Amino acid sequence: MTLFETLVLAIIEGLTEFLPVSSTGHMILATSLLGMESTAFVKLFTVAIQLGTILSVVVLYYKRFFRSINFYYKLFVAFIPAAVLGLIFSDLIDDMLESPMTVAISLVIGGIILLFVDKWLDNPKIDDSDEITYITALKIGLYQCLAMIPGTSRSGASIVGGMTQKLSRKAAAEFSFFLAVPTMFGATAKKLLDFYKDGGTLTTHETGMLLIGNVVGFIVAIIAIKSFIGFLTKHGFQLFGWYRIIVGAIIIILLLSGQSLSMV
Question: Is the pLDDT of residue 262 over 70?
């Protein structure tokens, strides 16, 4: 993996992880467009650089992480569905991660939903994510599981899930950010464990690329989170919906016409 590829993927991860556009989907498409071989390290890299984006949430919202022990209990409850289903369907998920068509279709379907979600769920009653109950946390966690389909968007699924439970857009987005911490940490830990169990080792160069990727992802994610909260509160989801539909439609047209997404 080159430094250029590392920087591109890290910027994409930082920009898209907390936006409802699917970071995983964009990473799959980016590696295809860059003509990157799907090696064990590339697969590890696209997951492991999530550690940097996790840290951005902890830094920006550090007061929340020290406010109450109940905060952690609720995150754990919301995390359980993804942990269980992720282990059960890990092989199926890995297979879907190899399919740009799956990503494209998910982008379009999710985009259509985002076009109307502001009208469907326009009666929020909870404006502070600290006010959610354990049952609500579990329901949001179940919505998050939809993101196991590449292109769906973990943040999008969990934010919409929160809005179905009467959370405001801001409260739902913030809880989605918090829930990303255990979810992404768990996914990264599993990927690292699988990598070493399969006999993988990191070279000095690969270790350096991981470090650079995490630092860049951390910086970009901080900017993305701050910008997203303000934009979402004022304008809602429609712009993200149209973006998803356009990108997904272009990919579907290219694939159906026999074009390769690879640039090399």
Answer: no
Domains in the chain: boundaries: 3-256
* Distance of alpha carbon 164 from alpha carbon 1, whole angstroms: 41
DSSP category for residue 82: H
> In angstroms, rounded to a whole number, what is the distance separating the alpha carbons of residues 7 and 13?
10
DSSP string covering 127-146: --GGG--HHHHHHHHHHHGG
Residue 26, classified by CB atoms within 10 Å of its CB into exposed (0-12), middle (13-18) or buried (19+), is buried
> Which distant-in-sequence residues (6+ apart) come within 8 Å of 218 by Cβ?
14, 52, 53, 55, 56
Distance CA(68)–CA(128), nearest Å, equals 14
Encoding tokens for residue 102?
């799956």
- Helix (H/G/I), strand (E/B), else coil: 3: helix
CB atoms within 10 A of CB 99: 15
For residue 251, give the 3-state DSSP assignment.
Answer: helix
What does the block give as tokens for 65?
């992480």
Q: Is a pLDDT exceeding 80 seen at residue 259?
A: no
Sign of CA dihedral 72, 75, 81, 85: negative
The number of CA neighbours under 13 Å toward the Cβ of 26 is 21
Beta bridge partners of 167: 126
H or E stretch at 93: helix 90-96
Instruction: State the chain's mean pLDDT as an integer.
Output: 89
Q: Could you give the CA distance from residue 111 to residue 100 in angstroms, rounded to a whole number?
A: 16
Mind listing the pLDDT tens digit for each residue in 212-240?
999 999 999 999 998 998 898 888 899 99
